[in-house]
Structure formats: C-alpha cells, structure tokens
Amino acid sequence: KMQLYGLKILHSFLKKESLKSNAILELTTYTKTVTCLIDMLGWTSEQDKDIRSFATNVMVELADNLRVVSIPGAMQFIASLLDIVHGQNIKDPLLDIGSPRCWRWITKHWSVPEEEPSTDQDLLPVQGMLILDKLASLDIENCIEISRSTGLISKIVEFTSKRTDLTNINETHQTLLKCSSLKLLTRLASTKGKFGVTMCQMITKHPFLLSNLAEILDNNGSSQELRELTAQLIRNLAMGGNVKEIGHIPMIISRLMDAFLSRSAPSSTDTDQLLRMIAGQELALLAMESANNCLLMLAEPGYVFIK
Predict the structure, then answer these.
(1) CB neighbourhood size of 66 (10 A)
(2) Residue 117: pLDDT over 60
(3) Domain 151-307 class?
(4) SUPFAM superfamilies of this UniProt entry (predicted)?
(5) pLDDT at 267 over 70
(6) 86-101 burial: b if 16+ Cβ within 10 Å, else e
(7) pLDDT per position as a tens digit, 37-51
(8) CATH 1.25.10.10 region(s) of the chain?
(9) Which burial class, exposed, middle or buried, applies to 247 when counting CB atoms under 10 A from its CB (0-12, 13-18, 19+)?
(10) Does an H or E element contain 11, and which?
C-alpha cells in the first residue's frame, strides 16, 4: 500500500504545473529512484497491476526528461508494456523510491490523492508507446537504445494491423493502439542523420509493415487521423531511402494518388488539405527515385495529369 500511495502522490505532483518542474528535478536527480520506477513496469502479476499502472503514468510524465542509456534493462521493462498478454510473474523487489530528502519533499507538499478514473489512454501498450515516443523525441541516444531492444520494433509494427488475436480489446482500443503505433513509428522514422536512415531501414524491414499501411489507406473505415499518420510515416520512410520497397506495394501508390488527385469532390477542410499535401510530397519522392514508380503512377486508371 505504501508503494501505491507513493506512486499516486508522485503522479499528482507531475500533473500539477506548479509542482511539476521541482518534482521532475527531484526524481531525475536520483538514478536509483528512476531505476525503481522502471523496474515496476515489469511487475506483471495480478496483485501488482495498480502499482504497475501508476508507475507507467509517472514514467509518461518523466520520459521526455530521461536518458535511459545509463539504466540497465530499461528498454526491456518499457517494452513489456506492449505485451497484451502478461508473461510470468516477476518477484517484487523492495521499493526504495529514493532518498529521505525526496520523501520529505513529498510529504511536505501532498497527501495521498483520490484515485482517478481510468481512461482509454491508460491502456498499457498506449502508455508504453507514448513513453517511447517521448524518449525518442529527447535525443538520438534514446533512439539508439530503442533500436537495440530485441523485438521492440516488431512489437510496435504489429499494432499497425487489426489484431485478431486480441479478443479482449474493443474496436475503439484497436484504433487507439493503431494510432499510437503510427505516431511512434513516424517519430522514429524522422530521426536525422545516418542513424535515421538505419532506423528507417529497420522499420521497413518488417515483412508486414507496408502491407499494413496499404490496408489502412485502402480501408474506407479508416479515420482521417489514421490516414494522415499513415501518409506521414510513408513519407518519412521514403525520405529515408526506402522508395523501391514502397513501390513494391502498388496499393500504396494507388491510394496516395487517390488522396492527391481525388476522384471525389474536392474538400476544403484543413485535414483533407493536409492529407493531400502529404500525399503529394510522397508521390514526388517516389517518382524522383524510381522509374518503376513513375510507370505505376501513369498506369493508374482514372487520372489525367495534364489537361
């Protein structure tokens, strides 16, 4: 109970703008504190689910201030949040949330808060991908750690498809997982420099990624947000030098053509215009780097480039 109360207090600090900066400074000053919090992400036994959930919430608030390279096993524990089915129970280590000074600061400013109602955003894989997104946005060292984590990229990519194996996840959560995955992959694919090219290649190497993206673009039931995220990811992958691989899935080019030179009545909404702009950028990249892609575009029925 003391562990859970402590996590609730920490989370409350981090949600209060007046306290957040000091709380982050206190927490990140002590590597041992952060290590304990990250360890909790791997507590998969049923009796520890509340502790794991609040530890995840705390890590979401801390992630864009953390460099995890110095924390052994950090990526393994964070990656465990993406596992829908829990693995073996992990023995609970004794919690040492940090120094006495840290605890004095906590007890001085706060009492144990009421438990907040859970939301869709509390879905652990969504939270896990948000943590990874924030880590990746901080610096390239975190991106390198993500790339080195065995099987992590594959776990992320798997959420870009409709998971028929997840019978306990409803349609709303499926869409939320898909959006989270696309956002994270787009972030990783936007990494600059030579490592950014390597990261794009790692992502594209997944055997089902491009077909999953094509399915999202081809599905009339896909939301505008899903289509935009998919288009942004394809654009970033193309900029990373994966033009030929993308061209191997004609459906992608076909749907990008549809978004850019829509057969339907033109829309003036900002979201439609954004999707059209992104699709145009992608088509330009795909055409410049591959004659075969140009032929696919010209062969697409129903469009006239020159009037």
Answers:
(1) 23
(2) no
(3) mainly alpha
(4) ARM repeat (SSF48371)
(5) no
(6) eeeebeeeebebbeee
(7) 999 999 999 999 999
(8) 151-307
(9) buried
(10) helix 2-15
Residue 16 to residue 85: CA distance in whole angstroms: 33
CA distance 243 to 237: 8
Average pLDDT along the chain: 83
Q: What is the DSSP string of 163-182?
A: -TT-TTS-HHHHHHHHHHHH
Burial of 192 (0-12, 13-18, 19+ CB in 10 A): exposed
Q: Average pLDDT, stretch 13-38?
A: 88
Among positive and negative, which fits the CA dihedral 93, 98, 100, 103? negative
The answer to whether 188 and 220 are in contact (CB under 8 A) is no
For 113, half-sphere exposure in the C-beta direction (CA atoms, 13 angstrom radius) is: 18
**pTM (predicted TM-score):** 0.83
Tokens standing for residue 28:
């990140």
